[in-house]
Specification:
Elements (H helix, E strand, L loop, with lengths): L4 H12 L5 H8 L3 H13 L19 E9 L4 H11 L5 E6 L6 E7 L2 H11 L6 E9 L16
Antiparallel strand pairs: 1-3, 1-4, 2-3
Length: 156
């Protein structure tokens, strides 16, 4: 399916605020609500939306420290990687993780209450993985999800 300008605008609007109603999206794009509804159904059917999520205020939930943890494994065997992924999914504090190519095998976004919880997460949870070779942390000072789909827009 080829996306046109209106499809890209719909995706941009909903990515920034998934709670917009069909009527609000239609008004923003100056199209009829029925046209907008059909486009939304088609975009959904074609798999352009993975999910509709709430972007939570982590501070309100007591998560004051966010960190990206870079992990390098000792071995790159399918069984080890699958085991690691399975265990990471169960750890309290993991917000999201990525399996990477390059020097770092995994990037894990974690959220914890404070530096003591961070220390505990690293030493008591991650350090117990016998197949981890290297752990490196980087604190997040500010986070914002910005994915501008204008790269898909035509230059006309």
């Amino acid at each position: 399916m080829k996306l046109d300008q209106k499809d890209i605008q719909i995706l941009n609007l909903l990515q920034n605020n998934a709670r917009l109603s069909n009527k609000e999206v239609a008004a923003e794009l100056d199209i009829a609500p029925s046209t907008c509804h059909e486009r939304l159904k088609r975009l959904t059917r074609e798999g352009f939306f993975k999910a509709f999520n709430a972007d939570l205020n982590l501070k309100k939930l007591g998560i004051n420290v966010q960190v990206i943890v870079a992990i390098r494994l000792k071995k790159h065997e399918r069984e080890i990687i699958n085991s690691f992924i399975k265990r990471i999914r169960t750890l309290k504090g993991v917000i999201k993780f990525y399996h990477m190519a390059g020097d770092t095998d995994f990037m894990i976004h974690i959220g914890v209450k404070d530096s003591d919880d961070l220390r505990s997460f690293i030493l008591d949870k991650l350090a117990n993985f016998s197949y981890i070779d290297h752990i490196e942390t980087a604190m997040i000072f500010y986070d914002e999800c910005v994915c501008n789909l204008s790269i898909f827009e035509s230059e006309n």
